[in-house]
Write a structure and sequence with these properties.
The chain has 95 residues and is mainly α. Helices cover 60% and strands 0% of the residues.
Length: 95
């Protein structure tokens, strides 16, 4: 008796493999906050897909942020950070 992997699981594995192959990182002229987000996500493309799904952001949208093709709105950016386990904080400059 052979065990067959469900189609959904195979599709998710194929998506993870494609994401790892296609992920190129952040472009250098992108805003520093987006660069930091890219550094957080750079280690694991599977993590990137999971973050997108949980934050309600399409993976192509996130890739456009990282390439500098699109600027995220604050709510979407904050959602991605929260799901990744980070937060955005405002601090007064010491002058």
């Amino acid at each position: 008796m052979t065990h067959q992997v469900p189609l959904r699981v195979r599709q998710e594995k194929a998506m993870l493999a494609a994401a790892k192959a296609n992920y190129k990182g952040v472009f250098p002229d992108v805003d520093p906050l987006i660069q930091q987000l890219g550094a957080i996500l750079a280690d694991d493309a599977g993590f990137l897909l999971d973050i997108c799904k949980r934050a309600g952001i399409h993976r192509q949208t996130l890739r456009k942020w990282l390439r500098g093709d699109r600027t995220p709105n604050l709510l979407d950016f904050h959602s991605v950070l929260l799901v990744a386990g980070y937060t955005l904080r405002i601090e007064r400059n010491e002058t």
